[in-house]
């Protein structure tokens, strides 16, 4: 059994005594049973007398002296007319004395029943706070000398404490159950107070120079034989060793249903036997505890062996007996059981492995061992890479659109800068490592589950973690939630819901909120990828380790949360790090300078969310994400605090985090010491890249974003920032073609429209499609293509080195050599594949012609400009690779060129239209604009210019027909505002004319 850190247990449950654990006791002392003293018998005697007087003497005295105060007949009108005298007030006072006696007697009966029947905490008598407390103390003192009373009643030392204070919960709740909103608030308040008390005590110790006690080993207690009339009980054990008898439930949760040395099992808290062994929470203290494996020689070998055997049965025990036990769930994050792989129908070996779509991107062993200089951390982070790649593509498209419509400081051009050095390596690693299909399936599966549960009027279950394993998706629940909706099914036990990869394909996009936006990848374990739901953790998640290693984990978590595809609105607050990460997602990431600003911000956010949930009638954010209330969306707030907080700040964080999971707020906090008050789950990152969480049963290969790669990722986003101003990218193509007669290429590929190749023979066999796709990728990246980027584009599911090299050999042979013997497929100094200048595409020619017309010879010669623009527009035969086969060229989704081409064609058409309108050739201008619209049909600039050119013909009927055509194309969205304003200027009565034309 692995060693357990007591800090986790104590943090999870809270130290009710207000102190931290005592120093380790490596020399077990003889058992010291509490003997009943003469004082105990004196207290019991006086308690008996007091009970006799109050329960029997008071009513007897009232009956003899005052009698029954109420009239013997019921005549309300007579009572109202009667004179109010001193006797009337006496009767009212006597009536209230009788009422108080009846209430106290009821309290005594409730307390006696609870003590004698084995109920741990008796029920409340309405309105009887002080009376019930008095009754409890008297009954406790009376039964203190008995055999069983001490198991269930607090000692007389607690006299004077308020009954409300005695009913604080023993542990933070791991899952907030819908329908218990008021109880949750009470539990959260109690938990926060306990954590604050614990943290305050730790802070006082630190200020006094006291060290933190080490408690690395699991502690055990052996039930002692009876001494006289006294029998050992879980309440007394908890009172002696945990400081609070009410924590007996934690001991019970740790040991329930585990086989004892005599073969029996603990099933009820009140039924324990001498000789049984109890595993104790980590903060237990006291000389009669046995710590394993460091048991002292005083413990007999037989007892040591029994404890060792018992310890091996505890792997299934609930985490710490705290939050997980309270919720009825299992906070031990278990590795899901994988389905056996189906036997292949054809036993012949495949040329390359093909893991299932939807699982993490496969990296075969042959490739994994040789990364060609690419960052391994990003290659092993498929979901993070996919998120970053998608966000980067979106940012670059923003630049294009804003540039095209003059939104940023005038026309800046359409060519993003070509990354170099580390940025280029990181971009290639993103292209190789990304698994967009896995992100899409994860997103659709989770939203589909939420929609199905909402249709059945069921609440979302609390999910601690998600596992991606062999293409299947496993959700680990905080507690059983019944049968999942189809096509989900139960996994290895009642706390696992599983969705097979084949079934996940049934889901389509649905308009529902993301149910678990706080899921984030932490790493892999036995080829299964773990996503922890930071939003659901019942408290703080602490991360210890060296500062650099912690920073790599924090950066990975922040980057994935900021760019993932399975979340809606989200706010990630970075404290103590990550100011440079904000360009990744300025709308999601916010940076705060220090923890003081964090506490102020989160206190306000916590208050606001509690009030909003209460006003909406929801118990937690999960009930606000499905069903009729899903419009609220309840976006998560996740706090990443890299710097270790002070003891005082840790107290405040613990208070905020006590109710955080219900409010949709998660906290990941770094610590150098590994001991953070209020931490529900503890993790450690090692220098070898292992993420350890022993109490959760985890040992992961951590997902990291080291500092160098973090800087390179940020550089990619900064270079693509649409607000960079005049220093942004310029309109210079990456590759200019000699457009003169002397520059005729040896190999010419037509990509704009149907794919054609001139100058090469068509390859034979099934490899022809692969060779054509490889050449298209190289033509679209004249700066060079990394071999692994090429192989991941052609084989998204992974491929071995020998298959890739065989394809490259065939590609080299197919392309051949130039007249001087130089291979047309070469490599640059970085090992990237490049094409010779004699291999050209029509897109290269189109870019070169437009560049020469607008920035070269065409600037000074109107005739040259017109000829170049006309030649450029003739090259346009349709969209990029218009006839590409189904299922291939999926890498184009990551390419900016599919957004560049329509804008380039539109710019060419607009320039040629302007060229013709300067000479009054409106028909020629309309012809040029219509040619551009075939490739860029939604470009508003083309339609506006077409309206102007048509207006120049002075033909209202034709202009009206064009307006009607525009309205038909715009659909339900209607005309864009600028187009509508232009029509108002060119054809004021266009609305009536269009309606008349439609009616005719």
UniProtKB/TrEMBL annotation:
Residue ranges with Low complexity bias: 7-22
Domain Bacterial transcriptional activator: 841-987
InterPro entries in UniProt: Bact_Kbp, BTAD, LysM_dom_sf, TPR-like_helical_dom_sf, TPR_rpt
Segments traversing the membrane: 41-68, 88-112, 133-152
Ranges for the TPR repeats: 906-939
Region described as Disordered: 1-30, 314-366
Superkingdom of this protein's organism: Bacteria
Compositional bias per record (Pro residues), positions renumbered to this chain: 339-354
Keywords: Membrane, TPR repeat, Transmembrane, Transmembrane helix, Two-component regulatory system
PANTHER family named in the record: PHAGE-LIKE ELEMENT PBSX PROTEIN XKDP, POTASSIUM BINDING PROTEIN KBP
Protein name: Bacterial transcriptional activator domain-containing protein
